[in-house]
Structures
1.
Amino acid sequence: MGSSVSWNDEGAGEARVALAGRLTIDDVTDLANALARQPAAPLVVDMGGVTAIDTAGAWAVNRMVREWQAAGYTAQIDGAAPDVARLLAALGAPPPAAPVRPDLGNPIIVQLERIGRAVYGQAHNIGLFLAFLGQTLVVLGATLIGRRPLRWHAVVHQCEVIAVNALGIIALLLFLVGLVIAQQGAVQLRQFGAEVFTVNLIGRATTRELGILLTAIMVAGRSGSAFAAQIGSMKLNQEIDALRTIGLDPIEVLVIPRVIACSLMLVGLAFYGGLWALIAGGFYVWSDLSMPPAAYITRLQEVILQSDFAIGLIKAPVFGFIIALMGCFHGFQASSNAESVGSRTTQAVVESIFLVIVFDAFFAFFFSFLGYN
Amino acid sequence: MEPLSPVLPDDADVAVRVRGLVTGFGDRTLHDHLDLDVARGEVLGLVGGSGSGKSVLMRTIIGLNPARAGRIEIFGANALDPDPVARRNLRRQWGVLFQEGALFSGLTVAENIEVPMREFLSLPEPVMAELACTRLRQVGLPVDAAAKYPSELSGGMKKRAGLARALALDPPLLFLDEPTSGLDPISAAGFDNLIRLLKDTLGLTLFLITHDLDTLIAICDRVAVLGDGKVLACGTVDQLRAFDHPWVQEYFGGPRGRAATTLPRGEAA
Ligand SMILES: Nc1ncnc2c1ncn2[C@@H]1O[C@H](COP(=O)(O)OP(=O)(O)OP(=O)(O)O)[C@@H](O)[C@H]1O
Ligand SMILES: [Mg+2]
């Protein structure tokens, strides 16, 4: 311990405390504890032996003086070097500790309030989302009929970021999934001696469902999150406000290019991803079932209906729209701190994947209902 | 040695010693064999045009920006030492106020001030809370700002909260990047007084980047002028005023420079 505190109550009707050594923040706790005494007589603080003091040390001394004065006794500081006295005087009586966190109140009420707020917040969020959807559709419509400028530059840039940069990972993902499906399918179908139908399984499952679904999930994870984080940090940085004051509409500048690029690119990516799954399937049937590639391709042409392709490609822009819209929406909802950008990014990804799956289920029933089995 | 050299004699007691520092971004060199000394217990002001590399110099000294060549010593220890233990010990020695405040947005103001205390000391919560409030008052913030989040503060309040965090441990060395920008003149004068008090009573060493001529005149022992990747000159304001360099002449001899000298704010306050 760098500081020493010695109390001496022998004196005539006064309490003396002698401080010596280093009164610094390193052992301010010990100092504050040693100085804590019930005031019972006028106080004299002898600071003759103090070799070093900092703001924390001065705080401890001043706090003691404040306590004694509050109890109605005088407190006097003796033998302080001029600089020490100056520091003590300049700091003055320390303010009473103020709450360090906003006061939340009774914990049970707080929990109830949190539940209430969460429910209300979700309902409110739906309203906000619908408003955002409406705004986006209005601006999108105006852009498509040429009443508003389309920012080609931004669209092309987003296309690159969303699609071109994702080509590698999507190829790898869909190739592996294609392999797994072919392998698992072949194992099951072999029990009935129907291995050749593995081609049907691969062909239809990937073109109609898996190619688009897995691509959409990958894009939601890659690009939806990026949209939310970009727009969220722009919001923190007041860049969105700056856009508005310059007279630019953030929806037009930030949302429309992303929505258009994401919808268009998902069509291409889904097709591309499906292709890789088919390639993987061909690879598997060639090596395991000894079906040559030419025969595989002919079989594929027989089993894949044109409607399968059409269904896959109809879903793609819808999923792209959902992903971009969710990412942008949550980005705009970010507020005030880095944490909210993080949680909004999470929400953007989770909700867009969720909605993509919900819509996928809807499409599946819808097209079955229409007779496209 | 030249009269306005930024280099102090070898036997001087220096807090920060920079020798032959080279920094740059891409193929652009920003500091070109820069030398600078900050003596222990002095307030060194650093001035220079916008974009001359003042903030980058500060970031390089505190190890946030890599140096391409050169040597940096802080209290005699090599600041470029990659050893994590050595770096941590060094970090305990300094407090930093960034140009933009750089408060942690997820913590309240008081929690921001408590971060360095938690990291380096183990103090009980109530003591930290009281120390944080003392700091707040010291930098001129009302104590009810303690429980506010940075997003609820004005620009100048953020600056002061950042200063309070930099001061949290009473570090012997303080790096302040434009501490008075965004403060009203009264608060700026209060800042000058606070720095002078801390310097006189705690013997702080300050490395202060500022465009505020009043602050330069009121609290700086020496002023270093950064230009062309080097320290052009380093001396008292009066010495610099006599220094024959167009930028320095315009800086101190321009209308603002003259106004600040005739009406030093620190004296009036
Ligand atoms: N991370 C970076 N990457 C590339 N260039 C940078 C980076 N940081 C700074 N620079 C460049 O270095 C130069 C010096 O920047 P610095 O922030 O040090 O200026 P400054 O002297 O502090 O100016 P001001 O007074 O405006 O704060 C600027 O030209 C800036 O463009
Ligand atoms: Mg700067």
2.
Amino acid sequence: MKLKWQIAEVTETIQETAQTKSLIFDVPEWQEHFAGQHIDIRLTAEDGYQVERSYSISSPPENGQKVAITVERVEDGEVSPYLTDIVEKGYKLELRGPIGGYFVWKANQTPTKPLLLIAGGSGIVPLMSMLRHRNLNPINSGAVLIYSAKATADIIYYDELNELTKKDGTLKTVFVVTREQPVNWQGYTRRIDLQMFEEVLGKMTTDYNVFICGSTSFVEAAADLLQEFGVSPQNIKTERFG
Amino acid sequence: MTDGIISKGFTGRRRNSGLDKRDRIPPGQYETDQFPVLSAGPTPRVSLDRWTFKVSGKGIETLEWNWKEFLALPQETFTVDIHCVTKWTKLDTGWKGVSLDTVFSKLNLLSAPNLQYIVAKDVTGYTANLPLKDVINGKAWIVHEFDGKTLSADHGGPARLLVPHLYLWKSVKWLNEIILTENDQPGFWESVGYHNYGDPFLEQRYRGD
Ligand SMILES: Cc1cc2nc3c(=O)[nH]c(=O)nc-3n(C[C@H](O)[C@H](O)[C@H](O)COP(=O)(O)OP(=O)(O)OC[C@H]3O[C@@H](n4cnc5c(N)ncnc54)[C@H](O)[C@@H]3O)c2cc1C
């Protein structure tokens, strides 16, 4: 079966932070996705010139054909500034998906190891789909999110993450900022390190179901540290945005 | 040439517009001068004194090399374009390594004409499948130097497969085994929705493309 290019209309846009924007599409022939998957977007200029890029899905599978992505504006980028600065409600774009069958999490999946989600910057996007999915389903294991951003103002979905954490005693969220020293801040203010994992995760277990997403350097650092902490590499799934 | 709709207000940067280069960039790909990383999991670190590479198959003898023996095989340096399914293409990348023709010349493949596919494996159990015809006659290498330098672990060092005419997930990193098989056996990405063959110029990214 072929993954067809489809025309999808933007039904809503949300400015999440100064640099990031969510686009919510209505995709008529959407085939249900798993949390963690992505779509490909194809843009075509008037003269036929085309480009494609991948974007992780931030909406949970339960939202069906209302598919959301969150795009970070890459300065000088060819595609992301178009999506964040020009596209508005009512625009029609070509996309196909869902894509990727490995970096995925299903709430009903066994075994039910605790989830450990580690995000760097816009790497939170596919992990947010997992957390939203988890929130909509009965769950029988805990989850920890460690989310590193440059500054507090760059944290995407900040309020929603705090809400989810407040209402769900089995979800622990730890924010990390690397280029700001905010006052009255519960989170960390340095790059992720081994001591941070020891403090956050404790000594009970190292048997987590781990998803790490972000830039290559962030993913490499986090995956190396987790193995040092004692997590088996077989339990670590990674997605690198570039 | 377009199928698809015009994206209102999109002009594009057209950094691929150099005419000589244009033909070398497959559909849906963009040129980058960086070297992004795609792997499904953490980067394994393989020490050279424990490195081995093995070739086996039904009805042929199994051969194994350690690092020193591998470096003693005839080495080739060459320049090729590489294409990752995540959309980037890197032109004129320079490599050094051993041609699979050299490896296979040590085996009596004529005695096993039914072995028409290979499964390439890495140290973590990751696999990719390829037709034998795509990895012989100067089309595939086991490389250990990139750009004149030792291949780094994140890009597959100590040594990776390199099959530049197919999407790069076929070019298994941290390679430690090639098994010749009678039947085509889908590998890791091929089993989770990616294309079985992966020709970038036919844009065979996903199953059914
Ligand atoms: C599986 C997958 C999922 C992805 N999911 C998301 C997502 O959910 N949200 C999102 O915003 N992006 C995501 N990306 C990245 C996205 O596909 C694009 O690479 C990104 O939007 C930049 O494209 P561009 O055309 O704007 O920049 P380009 O024109 O491609 O690049 C411009 C410059 O920026 C550099 N650059 C490219 N990408 C990045 C980056 N990610 N960070 C910093 N510098 C970069 C380039 O090397 C170049 O120098 C994902 C990528 C993959 C492979």
3.
Amino acid sequence: MSNLDAFYHALENPGRYIRQWKKETEKRAIGFFCSYAPEELIHAAGAQPVRIFGSGENMSRADSHIQAYCCSLVRGSLADALSGALDYLDGTVFPHTCDSIQRLSDIWRLNSPIKMHIDVILPVKLNTASSREYMNDVIKKFRRDLENKMGISISDEEIIKSSILYNRIRKALRELYKIKSMNPGAIRGRDLHTAVKAGMVMDRNVYADHLEEYIKELRSAMHGASSDRYKRVFLAGGICNIPDIYSSLEESGGAAVWDELCTGTRYFDGEIKITGDPVDAIAERYMERLICPVKYRSMNERSDSLVRQVREHDAGGVIFLILKYCDPHSFDYPDMKKRLDMEGIPSTLLELEDGRGIDGQIKTRIESFLEML
Amino acid sequence: MIDNPKITDPEKEKRKIKCVKKMKEIMTSYYIDAKTAVQNNKKVAWITSGGPVEPLIAMDIIPVYPENHGAMIGAGKMGADLCSKAEDMGYSRDLCSYARADIAASPINGGPIGGLPKPDMLVCSNNICGTVVKWYEIQARYYNVPLFIFDTPFIHSEPSPEALKYVKRQMGEYITFLEEHSGRSLNHDRMKEAGILAIRAQNLWQEILDTAANRPAPMTAFDAFFHLALIVTLRGTSTVVDYYTELLAELKERISLGIGMVPEEKYRLLWDNLPVWYRTRWLSDKLSSHRASLVADTYTSAWCGTTHLYDENNILESMAVAYSSVYLNISIDRMYEIIRGMIFKYGINGMIMHSNRSCKPYSFGQYDLQKMIMKNLKIPVLIIEADMVDERAFSESQTETRIDAFMETLASG
Ligand code: SF4
Ligand code: SF4
Ligand code: SF4
């Protein structure tokens, strides 16, 4: 199987992949939400961290537990948990993020068949001495919770090994993104997206090897391809679970050259220090890495960093991808848009829903936005 | 001049709470003080309803509550207009209508009191939701003023020792923030005094709410919604203590005279979530017509649910713990325990849950609570769909039909 095929294969049916993996390794798999989940520790515990994305199927299964005015990530994941579609998970980790995830954790704990349940109540502000101390404390507590609930002990050596592996993966992802930014024609957006997301499901050691080889392949194939054909677009928002967006963009002559998504740069931003206390080092990365709207560091941080990145990657415009009913992102949007307007950077907002895909209306919006650039 | 005698129904007059007039005067003078703060060289801090307000009182900083403003906007039926203005500014219609109304009111001095006084600083505690953090960030940018976030880790089971250490340590940071931005230092005697007054106000508020355990209930949750403004807005001052003392005396007198708020009270209901501010009168009449008295609610009781955690001898730290343990900052199984206690205490026959589009942390989980209450406690629970401020999310006819049907099942059960 080629490297790229391996990524597609894992993502096509994560359940099949994980079940097979569990049979081969006799290890446990632990699901998690959000790129603030300290998955390095799950990995160090000898379990497979699996990022939960709603499949978008049978969403109505969630209806008897949560209102319709809730984002499709929460409703879709809950539907999957209730239907048994996530039965390959031995546990779930809920980092504290938004109000919806906060309540989902309760509903999940009370109703889903997945028994092991850990909440990681991270700080909301990341700019004070007390929150730094608390972040360290909470990540240490998470280690203890994992040890107690799994009946194991996690050594510092394992944690360091895991951090080194995650650094390696994140470095490779950065490389991959740079290739895309420098030469948008070198890799299809859809492939890039798949390559990133596969790393949230696959065995991380296997994944790291595939990823590095894939980058080598791309590099050797890359000569003479010109980047001029694409209109350079930046994607802003949270997670993207709708790969069709990349194809739609490219069909209309655009390419996403950089993003601030949790299925993108927010996932690989920042490096874990390998010196000092290994758990504090992990905590430090979560304090410092690219912020998301559920965390606070300073008033204009997201707008500043958005503008900086758009300029750095010479993007002609910004597309905001926001899931309908997502409070944190919807609150940030108007001021970020205003800032882009002031800087003369065109932008547009696409309100998406998992399981709905890209319909004609959204496609038209993308096309007319690209025409403007 | 000829007196124009109003025709009053003595039955109705008898049921009215007499203190109300005074309460209105207190609120009016509070808002006048707040709006003239600049002239009087006083600083204004905007603060969330669950924020630690006592240090502000002790430092003569005037606390202003955008959420209370939101409630006034809702009650004044100005919500839909302001909310749609927020949508024009780019804010999604799915966001909390307190936040939307407030954000839209700022640039145009909108709302029933011509806008809130400009803040010198913002104090936000996420013990009620994550929305307030986003909302206050937006206002901090708009007014270009400093923002303090009092971060209260959510409690899914027990508060962790790590979280307790964190919230206590933040109290120190909070005081430093206030001192820096007000140019004053905190006097610890005054702090203690404000703390003690807050404890007394909360105890009185609890006693007031508890009068409704009497049959017939001398007040209903609708009266609690109205009188809540004081404990939200002026907690930590003697004004609240004095007023609530008077109100409590009046309610006790009503009990001794056998005066109930709902004529011929037959059913006793419990309310969950924020009020539907623009329809409180309608809903109150509707329930009365079924001889149902809304005797308690999970919302107004949130301001006295953690009083036992206060320690007069260690006000700041104990306050930090109390603030992080409030009703909306706990899991639904913990909420269930509190609801169960209320059902027994107030002799509840049925419960109405307001599924409030604006308030996700309050509304998500209601379906599970409903099932738990119906199954374990055999109490019927009705869920109605609305929004506390944005009238566009409310259908009167639909709600009416559902309430009528619910009351019928109660009557036949
Ligand atoms: S946007 Fe924030 S809350 Fe959502 S997945 Fe990303 S990091 Fe987590
Ligand atoms: S999409 Fe938004 S509302 Fe949904 S879980 Fe993520 S942050 Fe929360
Ligand atoms: S109504 Fe709910 S979401 Fe809005 S500010 Fe209050 S607690 Fe937060």
